[in-house]
Amino acid sequence: MSDLPKFVHIAEEGPREGFQIEKGPIPTEGKVRLIDALSETGLKHIQICSFVNPKRVPGMADAEAVARGIKINPEVEYTALWFNERGLEQAMAVGHLSVDCKITLYASEHFLISNLNRDRAQHLDKLRDLVKFCIDKKVPINRAGINAAFGCNFEGDVSVESLIATVDDTMALANEFNLDIEAFSLADSMAWATPDSIKRGVGAVKDKYPDMPILLHLHNTRGMGIANAYAGLEMGVDRFDSSIAGLGGCPFAKHQGAAGNVATEDLAFMCGEMGIETGLDLDALIEASQIATEVVAHDTPACIAKGGSLNAIRQRLKQAAE
Amino acid sequence: MSDLPKFVHIAEEGPREGFQIEKGPIPTEGKVRLIDALSETGLKHIQICSFVNPKRVPGMADAEAVARGIKINPEVEYTALWFNERGLEQAMAVGHLSVDCKITLYASEHFLISNLNRDRAQHLDKLRDLVKFCIDKKVPINRAGINAAFGCNFEGDVSVESLIATVDDTMALANEFNLDIEAFSLADSMAWATPDSIKRGVGAVKDKYPDMPILLHLHNTRGMGIANAYAGLEMGVDRFDSSIAGLGGCPFAKHQGAAGNVATEDLAFMCGEMGIETGLDLDALIEASQIATEVVAHDTPACIAKGGSLNAIRQRLKQAAE
Fold it and tell me: Which residues are B241's β-sheet partners?
């Protein structure tokens, strides 16, 4: 379809989103092995760990060892997640991590209160402190985003009006400090979105902020991940987060069972088959997906790694015809 | 979105598509238990078994016992799959199965040759014999369809031109016998479709046969099932086949790993959340999905049954607020 983007940027979050939720423990060398495999797939951005309180997220206790253990591909930007000054300092101390700051608001105030123990106003104050700290440390602040942008297990449905009000608050904060936001992410953190709500939400944000590039971070807990990504593509969205093998989820989101992010290889497959370039090597992603499944030592919800690529079949048929 | 259909008909194929591919053996009483649960979900059409050669499809050797064992809900039309006169006669002998005939062509001639050992012309001749037999037996012939409509593991990509040529052949056969085709199904039997190819294929068929209701039969082997269904909805498609818990696949399609049809409960969930009526009770479908998983005795790819419905969360939040 002619209005789909020509190129889509896919940023990998599997090692961070995935390993934070695993009951584990996952051996550090397994994590490093997966990240090294991902580094050879054409991905330009890989989020490899989070510097968070190991008491709250035990799976990330080895974050520094992982960050120091990987083989650096100079083509790849390696990032880490962090939420406060302490986490930022740990990430900076590693040396080869690409450190920038993202300001994140929550469309759901209930989620904020339940998980971070603060309301919107208090959260904005905390973000102001963080922004000042980053400016002081010369850490670029060029990303912003909304979590639970389409619905929340603690609050319920998030209306388009509420989403826009949260985007407005985020942009006001960015303007307060003259920040140049390069990408604005909308995260369906708890898998409430449908293709229809993706279109309404993205459409409303684009109407109000037409020049702002939007990124979608989608979860597949209810099986809508790829359909939601497609709805995003139809709205011109050309940036996505995803997780190899569909690893991941949100450890605080009260989900039992097979949560998981939209799978990198499934998203790359859909784009590739629809003529959208991603710069990714699907065969290498399938290999990385198989490594991810080995490393977590349980079945994963990835489809392409099990169903196989179509190019592999095309190749076989071509050889048989020769 | 205003151009989505207001009501979608979902026909259940899990007991047939699912159990034909299971390594099994699945006990007959398990099959009956699942069908009885499906009968209480609001589904109006359930395909419960196939009358085929038990040497080729051992999982269907107990087809008659299943058909005779179920508790009939008079609101539900129970159907069986069959390919030849012998199968049709077995289905008719049961007495309470709704027996009609569907004429099915294959967009891929390679698939036809590999699996049914005949070419297109020979297949059309076989269908003529079948149609004559049905007319003679007063069996209505009101459905038609194309298998491997979007691509084939034996032939590769199926072009829109080739799809339309196959639809033309099917319609010519229908016209030859003055058949009144009520629904025309396009089956992505081997999971080659993407939302883009669904739109191109369905669009081309609708352009040429604007009054013909189209049904989509989608497989989720490569994770595109729900996205493809959404693309179909966007094209105005309001009839789908699906399988509870995502059971199923094609036993002849050379697929290893997690094949499977688009899951009934995931499709019903998407429709419901987008304001499209299906007449289905999602909670009852989730229960049936859990029974399906017990009956096949392995994990299934269904998402909603694991992730939970949103209405359950909305209900909980409402109660907590009171």
Answer: B11, B217
B107/B119 same-domain check = yes
Q: How many CB atoms lie within 10 A of CB A3?
A: 8
| A206 assigned to some structural domain | yes
Q: Are residues B84 and B113 in the same domain?
A: no
> Number of Cβ pairs closer than 8 Å across A and B?
133
Looking at the fold, whether B162 and B66 belong to one and the same domain comes out as no
B-facing residues of A in 171-230 (CB < 8 A) are 191-192, 194-197, 199, 220-224, 226-227, 229-230
| Cross-chain residue pair B230–A195, CB shorter than 8 Å | yes
Contact B229 A230 (CB under 8 A): no
Is residue B66 located within the same domain as residue B107? no
- On average, the pLDDT of chain B sits at 92
Host H or E run for residue B160? helix B160-176
- Last residue within a domain, chosen from B172, B196, B212: B212
- Per the CB < 8 A criterion, the answer to whether A246 and A220 are in contact is yes
Summarize the confidence of residues B200-208 as an average pLDDT: 97
Cα–Cα distances in angstroms (integers) from residue B97 to residues A147, A149, A277, A320, B100, in the given order? 50, 48, 49, 44, 9
Residue B251 forms contact with A (CB below 8 Å): no
Closest CA to A88 of A106, A105, A100: A100
Could you tell me the pLDDT band of residue B112, with boundaries at 50, 70 and 90?
confident
d(CA B274, CA B1): 8
Q: So what's the ipTM on this one?
A: 0.94
B233 lies in some domain: no
Answer yes or no: do B275 and B249 share one domain: yes
The alpha carbon of B192 is separated from its chain's Cα centroid by a whole number of angstroms, namely: 16
Least confident window among A168-182, B41-55, B237-251: B237-251
Tell which of B212, B228, B262 closes a domain: B212
Instruction: Kindly determine whether residue A270 and residue B221, on different chains, have CB atoms separated by under 8 Å.
Output: no
- Do B4 and B93 fall within a single domain? yes
**A154 falls within a domain:** yes
Q: What are phi and psi of A102, to 5 degrees?
A: -120, 130
Same domain as B111, residue B81:
no
Determine contact: B274 vs chain A, CB below 8 A: yes
Q: Which residues of B are catalytic?
A: 250
Catalytic residues of A: 250
Q: How far is CA B23 from CA A295, B33, B118, B229, B258, in A?
A: 28, 19, 27, 28, 13
B193 is in which domain, residue-wise? 102-212
Give mean pLDDT, residues B227-256: 83
Residue A1 belongs to some domain of the structure? no
Spatial contact of A167 and A201, defined as CB atoms under 8 Å apart? no
Residue B122: which CATH number? 3.20.20.70
Ranges of residues in chain A with a pLDDT under 50 are 1-2, 251-258
The structure's pTM equals 0.95
Number of domains in chain A: 1
Are B195 and B270 in a shared domain? no
Residue (of B64, B56, B19, B41) closest to B248 by Cα position: B19
Q: Does A35 touch chain B (CB under 8 A)?
A: no
